[in-house]
Amino acid sequence: MHTYENPVIKGFNPDPSVCRAGDEFYLVTSTFEFFPGVPVYRSKNLANWELAGHCLTRRSQLELMGARPSGGVYAPTIRFHNGTFYMTTTNVSHRGNFIVTAADPLGEWSDPVWVDQGGIDPSLFFDDNGSVYFTSTGSSDGRTGIYCCELDPVTLTRVSESVCLTLGSGGRFAEAPHLYKNGKYYYLLLAEGGTEFGHMVTVFRSGSAAGPYQPCPRNPILTHRGADAQSCPLQCAGHADLFSDRYGNWWMAALAVRPLSGVMLHNLGRETCLAPVIWEDGWPVVNDGKPLDIRMSGPLPETPEARNESFYDDFSAPNPEYLFIRNPDGDRYRRDGKTLTLRGNGAALSSLDGEPPVFLGVRQKEFFSAAEAAVSVGDGGIGGIAAYYGPGYFFAVLAERDGGRTSVRTVLRVHGIEAVSAPVSLPDGPATLRIEAGTDAYRLGYVDGGKFIELARGASAGLCTEGTASMTFTGTLFGMFCEKGEAAFRRFRVTVG
Ligand code: 6LW
């Protein structure tokens, strides 16, 4: 038995799906309007996960032109079958469901094979008899249900009608289907209740892949819907995937959120959690039937190591942690071994249409954390750092150079309403910009002679998913940006604690 800490992958990493190849586990999560799409995390012990690649690294795989906030890539599924890795997901902003494949999950993946079945949350199941089943969430008569068709195992094109397997156990939005076989039964794992505080995981089984499926008498097998934010630090648990390790132990990866202290609001996005699973009477039991917790124990396949959620980049090498907005223009991001120079295109962080803002960011992984960068802005330029949730929700501190003078100011934007601080002149030389995050507020300013000078505070609740005017599914990033002219960054650091 080992102890480990949830979330096992912190920061905006929803809709986890896991496969195993030998003694390595690979886990993918959703990325929405961000590029590259669908990170591939790798682990041997299930508690420490390294971001080791992405499935969607080319525009031919991931067109995000016109994608709205929380459009783009929804929930993915990863599977390993006969030496090939398969990842299926939905681009809700462009053509729908597709599959990409790779021999090496950390290398380049294929171009998409588009699948002729609609809905979201696609999944793949490879049966022992060679049949390949494709499931997704669709709707019929205004109710969502789980649809299934067979695919040709070689071309991955649809070869059967799409049929409805179940409408779920009665919760709203039956979704996130994953089909498995264990012993004599086929199991269909679902999410129901919506991805918010009513989220739950339900399971169904049948003697045949095509059904009929019977619900587990203990459904939901995982939910935190009855737990309040005071007593349960993880909320919204749901959207799960089941898998086994080489010792025959079973596990569940599920998303959950960590609300701000005691309130039903979260700013770090939906995160990836892990729970042990046992089988009783032919049904999976998650974490002995108890809710998930931060401190967990289970028979991990290898001993976990200490974790460090801080981030440092001196721009000497590429870093896979960065997310860009929609399809970035690579020519506007130049790294020369010591400096990252961003060239603005006139698009502010609030921009929704046309060319995306020149921005790159990493996931905020802890409530108490600080982002800092040293930046020199060329004449006529505007560049800085931001805690960025989306075009309508960000807190930025930026340097502006005009007529040979540099000044610094802050922009707090919530619900599209902007508060801009008065500019403060800085001496010549790089400006060190800093954002300190906490559960109550983000404090924004600059560092002068080793001292933090605060210019503005934005309420942490302003970057929370629950507060956005349209439904969103993402989380806060710390990033660098350049709106106009050039901004040269010397280092970018996120510290936690
Ligand atoms: C996803 C749906 C859900 O496709 O949220 O948590 C949607 N569940 O299954 C977006 O992540």
Write the layout of secondary structure elements.
Elements: E1 2-5, E2 17-21, E3 24-28, E4 34-35, E5 37-43, E6 50-56, E7 77-81, E8 84-91, E9 96-102, E10 113-114, E11 120-126, E12 132-140, E13 143-151, E14 163-166, E15 175-182, E16 185-192, E17 200-206, E18 214-215, E19 222-223, E20 235-244, E21 250-257, E22 271-280, E23 283-286, E24 295-298, E25 311-313, E26 323-325, E27 333-335, E28 340-343, E29 358-363, E30 369-377, E31 382-390, E32 393-402, E33 405-414, E34 417-420, E35 424-426, E36 431-437, E37 441-448, E38 451-459, E39 477-484, E40 486-496
Antiparallel strand pairs: 1-24, 2-3, 3-5, 4-26, 5-6, 7-8, 8-9, 9-10, 11-12, 12-13, 13-14, 15-16, 16-17, 17-18, 17-19, 20-21, 21-22, 22-23, 25-40, 26-29, 27-28, 28-40, 29-39, 30-36, 30-40, 31-32, 31-39, 32-33, 33-34, 33-35, 36-37, 37-38
Bound molecules: (Z)-L-Arabinonhydroximo-1,4-lactone.
The site of (Z)-L-Arabinonhydroximo-1,4-lactone has 15 residues, from strand 11, strand 15 and strand 20.
Model description:
The protein is an all-beta fold. It folds into 2 domains: 2-298, Glycosyl hydrolase domain, family 43 (Tachylectin-2, Chain A); 311-496, Sandwich (Jelly Rolls). It contains no helices and 40 strands. It has strands at residues 2-5, 17-21, 24-28, 34-35, 37-43, 50-56, 77-81, 84-91, 96-102, 113-114, 120-126, 132-140, 143-151, 163-166, 175-182, 185-192, 200-206, 214-215, 222-223, 235-244, 250-257, 271-280, 283-286, 295-298, 311-313, 323-325, 333-335, 340-343, 358-363, 369-377, 382-390, 393-402, 405-414, 417-420, 424-426, 431-437, 441-448, 451-459, 477-484, 486-496. Strands 4, 26, 29, 31, 32, 33, 34, 35 and 39 form a 9-stranded antiparallel beta sheet that branches. Strands 25, 27, 28, 30, 36, 37, 38 and 40 form an 8-stranded antiparallel beta sheet that branches. The chain binds (Z)-L-Arabinonhydroximo-1,4-lactone (6LW). (Z)-L-Arabinonhydroximo-1,4-lactone is lined by residues 14-15, 30, 74-75, 120-121, 175-176, 191, 195, 238-239, 255, 473.
